[in-house]
Amino acid sequence: MARVIVDVMLKPEILDAQGQAIARALPRLGFSGVSAVRQGKRFEVELEGPADEAALSDVRKMAETLLANTVIEDFTVTVEA
Amino acid sequence: MSAARVGVVTFPGTLDDQDAARAVRHAGGEAVPLWHADRDLKGVDAVFLPGGFSYGDYLRCGAISRFAPLMEELIPAARAGLPVLGTCNGFQILCEAHLLPGALMRNAGLHYICRDQGIRVESTATPWTSDFTEGREIVLPIKHGEGRYVADEATLAALEANGQVVFRYVGGNPNGSLNDIAGVRNEAGNVVGLMPHPEHAVEDLTGAPSTDGRGFFTSILKKLVNA
């Protein structure tokens, strides 16, 4: 059993309207010193077996096919320790 | 002569399939219901992907629908030249399926927008817009929360250079779409997607802002009859 984390973020050049709205809300809540917020998605993928290279390659394929839209998003795959 | 057959796809969460089917019949065509779980296009001559919230818009709008069994038939057929029109959620599905370039994102103002919108027809070189004249301004309803069209710079430049921008917003950009883009087509021209709703604007009786939507349906039916 292993848990693999897929983080999906908008590409840097894509306007993140939601992240901007969050950033604008922070000063109103008393949080200062934040210059920007970007919002993304985190997927926790539970594997039946170990997170070996074959399994990770499958997860990367999942990310590319479904979890992320690579037209607008980048993703990273990490194994949770 | 039998009427041209236009398939109208229903996914779980589709809303506009009945209006789309009615618009097809209004223009003199036969509307053929297509079910997302069937691997069967029923031999239709064209396909309309209507709006709504297919699969609850989970993950991303259109991201799940794009893998529906019906889409496994539709995607190769569209690549082979079958005329396909996607409106609103249908446009999002076509982008997720990579049948159209770019993607649709949350409106820049973050609000869901429901209003009558001016749109300029930029290209009549598609089976869905041939009955319009280039540059004509029409009014159609829009109703969406995720209609901001984005694409990388190179894609955007190619779309403009190839005349693949089919519709542009006029009188104000409602959602922050790049280059005021309301709709695009693929390179071949048979696949068209737009956020506005022609199927809601075919009859005066329904309180639509216009009957400008009729042109989409008369275009495709003429094309199919003359094919």
TrEMBL record, chain A:
Q: Is Nucleotide-binding a UniProt keyword of this protein?
A: yes
Family affiliation: Belongs to the PurS family.
Location relative to the cell: Cytoplasm
A UniProt-annotated Pfam family: PurS
GO terms for cellular component: cytoplasm
HAMAP family noted in UniProt:
PurS
Keywords, in A-Z order? ATP-binding, Cytoplasm, Ligase, Nucleotide-binding, Purine biosynthesis
Organism (species): Planobispora takensis
Q: Tell me, which GO biological process terms does this entry list?
A: 'de novo' IMP biosynthetic process
Enzyme Commission number: 6.3.5.3
User: How is this protein named in the record?
Assistant: Phosphoribosylformylglycinamidine synthase subunit PurS
Instruction: State its role.
Output: Part of the phosphoribosylformylglycinamidine synthase complex involved in the purines biosynthetic pathway. Catalyzes the ATP-dependent conversion of formylglycinamide ribonucleotide (FGAR) and glutamine to yield formylglycinamidine ribonucleotide (FGAM) and glutamate. The FGAM synthase complex is composed of three subunits. PurQ produces an ammonia molecule by converting glutamine to glutamate. PurL transfers the ammonia molecule to FGAR to form FGAM in an ATP-dependent manner.
**Reactions listed under catalytic activity:** N(2)-formyl-N(1)-(5-phospho-beta-D-ribosyl)glycinamide + L-glutamine + ATP + H2O = 2-formamido-N(1)-(5-O-phospho-beta-D-ribosyl)acetamidine + L-glutamate + ADP + phosphate + H(+)
**GO molecular function of the protein, one example?**
phosphoribosylformylglycinamidine synthase activity
How this chain assembles, per its entry, is: Part of the FGAM synthase complex composed of 1 PurL, 1 PurQ and 2 PurS subunits.
The record, for InterPro entries, names: PurS (IPR003850), PurS-like_sf (IPR036604)
